[in-house]
Design a protein that fits this description.
Helix content is 46%, strand content 16%. By secondary structure, the chain is of the alpha+beta class. The strands form three sheets. The chain has a five-stranded antiparallel sheet with strand order 2-3-4-5-6. A two-stranded antiparallel sheet has the order 1-9. A two-stranded antiparallel ribbon has the order 7-8. α9 packs antiparallel against α10, α10 runs antiparallel to α11 and α11 runs antiparallel to α12. The protein is elongated.
């Protein structure tokens, strides 16, 4: 009995992601797609015309799945084989419910789209399909989305590998980079926090500064150069003995966020540790001035900054 069970499971794993069309050429919906490989999820990701439509609405989750055979092939080659099937599952989000006190969780299904690589299809090698949702369930079949739709041009111009947004799937993006299959004209993603931390630990300041300037110019909203990230990283460097780099990083942050009392407060601490006492006094006074008007401070943070500044001035004097 156990052998028969294992054999039946093997058959299911082989056939669960078969690419099937109806007699009229419509794509059949893969009902077991949630057993496929989950590539990633985005919250509130919008671009193109849909970005304006979603303004003021609760953010939606998009979950992306790919058939297992194609996933394994991509790991080996960095390329998508024929019969590759992507499922984009779109769900509403909710903030209130159960024990949740922050962030969003996924709720009802609102959309299903597929992107299929099939060289034998009369619709083209990469074709999109939209499965209408009724009563929370997708239709059994879907016609190909016309080639005139914006999605085709978008996927041609902005994807990292072939017709797919591999740049949004971190583990696969690394595979594509290693295999050399990222499109030649694709603009690299901004430095993430891990990459920035490695850079500031090993590179000379001019190289770090050039990377930060590039981030600020090209992707000013990148999390790796957010006020909170830079403050934590600068303070960590200073306290770990890399005082000069920590000071340089916080000075750069103070130029990027000139109205921040928090940055001046961290910079004052870094100056004090570095033995630059006059600069520490100046930054401390500046943090006190900014604390009165810094919109990023709530009452608790404002008190923390002013108390820290007062205590530091006592030490410095």
């Amino acid at each position: 009995m156990r052998l028969l069970t294992l054999l039946s499971l093997a058959v299911i794993s082989i056939t669960a992601s078969d690419l099937e069309y109806s007699a009229s050429g419509e794509l059949k919906f893969p009902a077991r797609y949630r057993e496929w490989v989950f590539l990633g999820s985005g919250l509130g990701m919008t671009y193109g015309p849909v970005a304006e439509f979603n303004v003021g609405r609760p953010p939606m989750f998009d979950n992306v799945y790919v058939n297992p055979e194609s996933y394994r092939a991509f790991l080996e080659s960095g390329k998508w084989p024929a019969k590759t099937q992507f499922v984009l599952e779109i769900r509403n989000s909710e903030r209130s419910g159960s024990i949740n006190r922050g962030g969003n969780f996924q709720t009802d299904l609102v959309g299903i789209e597929m992107n299929v690589k099939d060289p034998s299809s009369p619709n083209g090698e990469w074709t999109f399909y939209n499965f209408p949702i009724q009563d929370g369930k997708p239709s059994a079949v879907a016609k190909a989305i016309p080639r005139s739709a914006d999605c085709y041009q978008c996927h041609t111009e902005h994807t990292a590998v072939e017709n797919t947004f591999v740049q949004f799937y971190p583990t696969l993006y690394e595979v594509a980079q290693h295999q050399g299959t990222v499109k030649p004209g694709f603009a690299p993603l901004p430095l993430n926090l891990t990459q920035l931390e490695a850079l500031v630990r090993t590179a000379p300041w001019p190289q770090i500064e050039a990377a930060l300037d590039k981030l600020a110019s090209q992707t000013p909203q990148a999390n790796s150069i957010s006020l909170a990230t830079l403050s934590v990283l600068g303070s960590r460097l200073t306290q770990a003995g890399k005082t000069a780099t920590g000071v340089n990083l916080l000075e750069w942050s103070s130029r990027q966020y000139p109205g921040s009392a928090l940055v001046q407060n961290d910079l004052a601490d870094a100056y004090r540790i570095a033995g630059k006492l006059a600069a520490a006094k100046t930054a401390t006074s500046r943090s006190l001035q900014l604390a009165e008007s810094d919109p990023m401070l709530n009452a608790v943070l404002r008190k923390a900054v002013t108390d820290a500044a007062a205590n530091r001035l006592k030490l410095l004097n």
